[in-house]
Sequence to fold (159 residues):
Amino acid sequence: MTTDQTATEPAAGTTPDVTTNAGDTRLWVERTGKRRYTGRSSRGAEVLIGSVGDEGAFSPGELLKIALAACSGLSSDSALAHRLGDDVQVTISVSGMSDEAEDRYPAFLETMDVDLSGLDPAARERLLTVIHRAVDQHCTVGRTLDAGATVSLTVAGER
Fold:
């Protein structure tokens, strides 16, 4: 490992470890009914998953969008709090329709709603630059969507 690599970055030309998660967190879903699942983490978090329109549940596509918006928020949170205060109110909306013929989402639109009226024009532009840079460089979900990711499914017992 070179000094420029972290323990979680694979060396050039190597395959990343897909058998673990950050912080050794275990993630899984359990079927809880017809087209209903509960997503769980070993840290005790739960989320209800179902079809679009199911009351009290997120669809998988909605979870993908929420993960993207949350990642953008977390990536820019330090800069926002530093310049606008720890109690800054931020809402990030995300949208995008699936292409039913291709069964995928071709594009998403994120809108960050934050009051920048207390900043002078130069400070506003600097903060906008920092927000975009932080999201572009540190939002793992957005970077993964931009680059694409390989997904492998193994059914227990098939091998």
